[in-house]
Structures are given as C-alpha cells and as structure tokens.
Automatic annotation (TrEMBL):
Pfam families: DUF389. Keywords: Membrane, Transmembrane, Transmembrane helix. InterPro entries: DUF389. The chain crosses the membrane at residues 21-40, 46-66, 78-96, 116-134, 141-163, 175-196, 212-233. This is DUF389 domain-containing protein. The lineage of its organism: Bacteria, Bacillati, Bacillota, Bacilli, Lactobacillales. Coiled coil: none annotated. It comes from the Bacteria.
Length: 335
C-alpha cells in the first residue's frame, strides 16, 4: 500500500518549479496545439495539449507554499505561473491573429461562461492532485487527469482569441475561468498540505489573518460563477416546462421555431389554425406549467388548415434576415 508523506509531496512539488527554457518551449508548443484544436473544434487535440502542458506545476506550487506559509516558495511559484500564463496568452494571440479561421467554435464558446460547477471541478481536481503528489512511488496518471478535468489550457487560448479579435466578452469570460481553475486548485492543494502536516504531527504556522483573507477572496471569486450557474439551472428548468407545455397543449401543431427572450415566449407553429379564444386559453394555461409572468406570442404559418411552400419560404427568409441583422449588430457591439 502506498503511503502518504509530506516529504514526498514537497519533493514532487518543488521538482517542477523551474523557470528553464525547455519547460517554457513545451508550454508554447502545447498552447499552439490547443489553439489548433479549439480552432478546428477538435476535443481530442485539445486533450492532447493539456496532457503535455506544464501549467499545473506552478499552481500546485502556490497551494503548497500557502499550506506551509513559505513566502519564498510562494513568490517563486507565482512568478513562474505569471510567466507561463503570459507565454500562453502571447502564443494564443499570435496564432489567432494569423489563423484563417475566424469563427468561434463550440470549444471556444464553452470557455466563456464559467459556472459554480467549474469551482467544484477545480476543488475536486486539486484534492486529487495533492493526494497523488504525496504518495510514495508517484501518482501515476492522476495529475495529467486533473489537468484535463480542470482544463487550464483552453481558457488561456480563448483569452488569446478574444484579444486577437478585440472581443472583450471572450477575454473576460475565459480569463475568469482560468482564475477559477487556478485559484481553487491552489486552495485545494493548500488545504491538502495542511491536512497532511497535521496528520504527520507538524506544527502549523498559518495565521488566522491569512485564512480569513483566502476565504474572502474565495467568496468574491465564487459569486459571479454562482450567479451564472443559477441562470443555467433556471434556463434549463424553463426549457423543460415549455417542452411540457407544448407537448400537452399543442399536440397537433408542428413547432417550426421557439425562443425565450426576457420572459417572452415566441412560438412559430404549423398545423390546424388556432382561434383567438384558443390562443387566449393557451396564454392563461402558462401558469399551470410554472411559467406565470411569461408573455406568449404565437405566429401561425398556416392559412386555414394548410401552408403553401411559398409561405414557409417567405417566413424562413424573414427569420434568416432577422438573424443576420442581429449578428451584424452583435459584431458591431463587440468591435
């Protein structure tokens, strides 16, 4: 059975805290690989980049230094993390400036809206990592697994994409995700280090002031992600209620399009034409599906009980023009 040792943890953590050119060259290569994967929307390529990235080392080093109140090691690890993050952002920005593919892929978009779940993943990953590093005989594939689960590389690449395209929402969103991952991995590492020190009978020298400061910072960082997480849960719930409403109240209608915008539900339907009284009844039944306060607008694409091909084409053309106009407006706002 492998034993947990604080000396093993210290040895493994400090072994990778070296500011040398081979490590930084590997990081730069990993950043380029990750950028290509994000650009081409290829998850396997992104995962490969995370496996070879050395970004975990300084973050774990910061947590270990906090758990030992070692200011010299904390400064060394922080300096290394800032250097590596700067190299990553610079490399990503350069890549996306010269890349012929300018469209934001799903892989890029996924890194722009952090939630409370990212906090939980970083904490769990941090704990797994510090336990792995404290095991005599090595931690096997746990640390690379933590690097993949917490996804430190993609947010930095997305920051570079945002900078290269002057898109502030991408830059801030991805930067916040990287901050969440780095801070809570370090926090989990610090907590694990303190636990192992207590377990081995070592005297703790972490002041109450330091603990309170870290707690305050953690709460400040968590707040925006909690709000975002609540919004996602709320949206998922409303979508489920709307699906139930459509299935029960409009069983004979084909829903050509549906959207929810600021408590305004818009449905475009094809089927037997609904009377005004039927529409009024549908609006009043929203409260039965916990959608009280929502406004319902139904656009009927049929004349009588049928729809011609021309009518449907005209409607789709109108929607496409509207979406194009909205996209142009969004691009102007980003610029």
């Amino acid at each position: 059975m492998q034993q947990i040792s604080t000396s093993t943890l210290s040895k493994n953590v400090q072994a990778d805290l070296n500011l040398n050119w081979p490590t930084q060259a590997i990081l730069f290569c990993a950043i380029i690989i990750a950028c290509i994967g994000l650009n081409l929307n290829s998850a396997p390529v992104v995962i490969g980049a995370m496996l070879i990235s050395p970004l975990m080392a300084p973050i774990v080093g910061i947590g270990f230094a906090l758990g030992n109140s070692n200011s010299k090691l904390l400064l060394k690890a922080t300096r290394l993390m800032i250097t590596q993050a700067s190299i990553g952002i610079l490399g990503a920005t350069t890549y996306f400036l010269i890349s012929p593919i300018n469209t934001a892929s799903d892989q890029l978009l996924a890194r722009t809206e952090p939630t409370i779940w990212d906090v939980l993943i970083a904490l769990a990953g941090g704990f797994a990592g510090v336990i792995s590093l404290a095991k005599k005989g090595g931690g096997g594939n746990v640390v690379p697994g933590v690097a993949i689960a917490t996804a430190l590389m993609p947010p930095l690449c997305t920051v570079g994409y945002g900078i290269s395209h002057l898109n502030l929402s991408f830059t801030l969103g991805a930067g916040y995700l990287f901050l969440i991952n780095a801070f809570f991995i370090a926090l989990a590492t610090a907590a694990g280090t303190i636990f192992f020190r207590i377990r081995s009978g070592q005297h703790l020298n972490v002041s109450v002031r330091q603990e309170i400061l870290i707690l305050i910072i953690a709460i400040i960082i968590i707040i925006p992600s909690s709000i975002s997480g609540y919004s996602i849960v709320r949206k998922s719930y409303v979508d489920a209620q709307l699906s139930a409403f459509i299935e029960k109240e409009l069983p004979n209608q084909y829903i050509a399009k549906q959207s929810i915008d600021h408590q305004h539900i818009k449905l475009a339907v094809i089927g037997r034409r609904l009377t005004q009284s039927q529409i009024s009844k549908l609006k009043s039944s929203l409260k039965d599906y916990h959608l009280k306060g929502y406004k319902l607008t139904i656009t009927q694409l049929t004349k009588g009980n049928y729809i011609t091909a021309q009518q449907f084409q005209d409607y789709m053309k109108q929607q496409n023009n509207g979406n194009s106009l909205q996209s142009d407006n969004d691009n102007q706002m980003d610029k």
